Amino acid sequence: MKPIIKLENVWKTYQLGKVELVALKGINLEITPGAFVTIMGASGSGKSTLLNIIGCLDIPTKGKVFLRGQDVSLLSEDKLSQIRGKTIGFVFQEFNLLPNLNALENVELPMIFQEVSQTFREKKAKELLISVGLGKRIFHQPAELSAGERQRVAIARSFANDPELVIADEPTGNLDSVSGKKIMEILTDFHKKRGKTIIVVTHDPNIAKYSKEIVNIKDGQIIHNHFQTEKVLWGK
Amino acid sequence: MGKIKEYFKIAIRNLRTRSLRSWLTILGVVIGVFLIVGLLSLSEGIKATINEQLKGLGGEMIFIMPGEMSATGMMGMMMGGEKLEKADITAIEKTKDVDEVLTMSYSSSVMRYKDEGKTVFLGGLGGQPWEKGAEILKRFQGWSLNEGRWPISGKREVIIGIQIANEIFKEKVKVGTQTTIQGRRFEIVGILNSLGSKTDDSFVYLDMDLYQSITGGGKGSAQIAIVKIKEGASLNRVAENIKENLQETRKRKTGTDEADFSVITSDKITKITGDILAIIQFAIVIFASIAILVGGIGIMNTMFTSVRERTREIGIMKAIGAKNSTILIIFLIEASIIGLIGGLGGTILGAGMAKLIETYGQVHPVFYFSASISPALIAFGLFFSFFVGCLAGFLPAKRATMLKPVEALRRYE
């Protein structure tokens, strides 16, 4: 199967004053449709950097990233934004909802950027909010929602444009265990029912249990894997 | 278009979240536009009023005053320091193509009415003013009778300004009554309509002969002469001829050829007035533009702060698919909304102020003029503020688009 995202010998270096920090050291990774992958690593292991590059939010210092076979370094910023908006959904640790918009509008926003018609947009956003169990809270502002509810809005938002890939960066990091469990159940459910590829980044082994495929990362390198299938490949 | 509508909604939402700051920024624009619209409509109004009065001149008048036409010369003329002598006036009268000459002298004097004595202005009019000069008076000053009739030359009759009739004395001055000036009795035969200012309306006008017998000035002399030229004659040519004749007369008399008089045509007055008004308007536009500029800087400041505060939001929007142009549009919409609301408020307040002053001016003749609030001025105020908003918002918006999504998201973590 053709990979959704493919990383070829990806390096990422940060310049911190005079010190050079190498966050990623020659990562090779392919993610094929339908996978539910967990990227595990301690704080500072480079997992967030890897996630940003997989999500096309950041570009590698060296190496290539292919989004559905397309070299992202050749795309203009606007084009990349549009493809990213259509292909990848994001769930962040801090939820990152727009505080001025209510739940429904937050879920509609990615569709507005893709110029989806209003009728379709509203229908889709409502459907998503209902499926994450927030059918009665669609007009609430983020400030009026609990942390768990906010993250559920964020999940609904990440699925708005029916992306092939949803990336969740420590989605339960700011939540209590009950809310966290609920979030992981929703993600698993969406993975099964909607057939989406999901990548979760975490340092929490309990979260990693939800996934069959785990990539361990340490010091900017992939060190170990627990793949039961060949959906995720890495080099050498 | 539907997209823009959505961005517009988002922009409004953002502005309302920072409601106090938004309103303060709007206030800055309001003040600038208020000044521009208010001052421009007033100065346009003043211009229109003056032009209307100048139009009354018919463009066919020549004014001759003693002294150089300068600030001090003007004062000299007003204070009655220098004079046109009888010989000068004769020289003017004899100039080719001169139709009528009306001479005037001014001074102040005490006027007694019933038991009261008040200081008023005394105006002597020479050259058969009521018969032949009346056309000049009506056309030049816009004189018209409110009550009574014009005096008859040779009789001890006067006409008075409306201010004297209604305001100065405790009792209203009536037509047909007697007044005493410098110990002589005169009959008040007419009251003039307002001439536009309190000063002009505080005059008692009488024959030059009577005036000179009261004030004791040299016979036949005057402080100003107004000339009406014959039809078809060239205004400038006649003015030149008058100047030459006057110079010759003076040379013969004093042996010098120093020109200590001014010959001005009504055209020239119109032009000078127009020039002065243009300068005033230019200054107004400059000052008001500075005010607008400050308003614009206010917008820029607010938008820059907003970009800083919303770095994370911008990152989120980019991550979920917003293009750079989308971010730019949202920020520009916000800035231009501030500009436009400010412009609207400023235009309404400015036009309101102009109307208010106009209303005040109609009650108090000193300020007599109309405000000119043209649709063009309103459109200008609105467009200008919108433009300033866009311009001021552009740099901050550009900065917002330049944020890398990953950096924007990392910020403030």
How would you summarize what this structure contains?
The complex is a heterodimer of chains A (about 240) and B (about 425). Chain A is an alpha/beta fold and about 240 residues long. In chain A, about 35% of the residues lie in helices and about 30% in strands.
Structural account:
The complex is a heterodimer of chains A (236) and B (413). With 236 residues, chain A is α/β, with parallel strands linked by helices. Chain A has helices at 47-54, 77-87, 103-113, 118-131, 147-158, 177-194, 205-208; strands at 5-16, 19-31, 36-40, 62-67, 70-71, 88-91, 165-169, 197-202, 213-218, 221-225, 232-233. The two termini of chain A are 20 Å apart. Chain A is globular. In chain A, helix 3 (103-113) crosses helix 4 (118-131), helix 3 runs parallel beside helix 5 and helix 5 packs parallel to helix 6 (177-194). Chain A has a six-stranded mixed sheet, with helices on both faces. A five-stranded antiparallel sheet of chain A has the order 5-4-1-2-11. Helix content of chain B is 58%, strand content 17%. Chain B contains 13 helices and ten strands. In chain B, strands 2-3-8-5-7-6 form a six-stranded mixed beta barrel. The model of chain B is unreliable at 71-80 (pLDDT under 50). Classes of the chains: A alpha/beta (236), B alpha+beta (413). The interface between A and B is medium-sized, with 31 and 26 residues.
Give the helices and strands, then pairings.
The complex is a heterodimer of chains A (236) and B (413).
Chain A: E1 5-16, E2 19-31, E3 36-40, H1 47-54, E4 62-67, E5 70-71, H2 77-87, E6 88-91, H3 103-113, H4 118-131, H5 147-158, E7 165-169, H6 177-194, E8 197-202, H7 205-208, E9 213-218, E10 221-225, E11 232-233
Parallel strand pairs in A: 3-8, 3-9, 6-7, 7-8
Antiparallel strand pairs in A: 1-2, 1-4, 2-11, 4-5, 9-10
Helix pairs in contact in A: 3-4, 3-5, 4-5, 5-6
Chain B: H1 2-17, H2 19-55, E1 61-66, H3 71-79, H4 86-94, E2 98-113, E3 116-126, H5 134-140, E4 145-148, E5 157-160, H6 162-168, E6 178-181, E7 184-192, E8 203-207, H7 208-215, E9 224-229, H8 235-254, E10 261-265, H9 266-309, H10 311-319, H11 324-363, H12 375-402, H13 405-410
Parallel strand pairs in B: 3-8, 5-7
Antiparallel strand pairs in B: 1-9, 1-10, 2-3, 2-6, 2-9, 4-7, 5-8, 6-7
Helix pairs in contact in B: 1-11, 2-9, 2-11, 2-12, 4-8, 9-10, 9-11, 9-12, 11-12
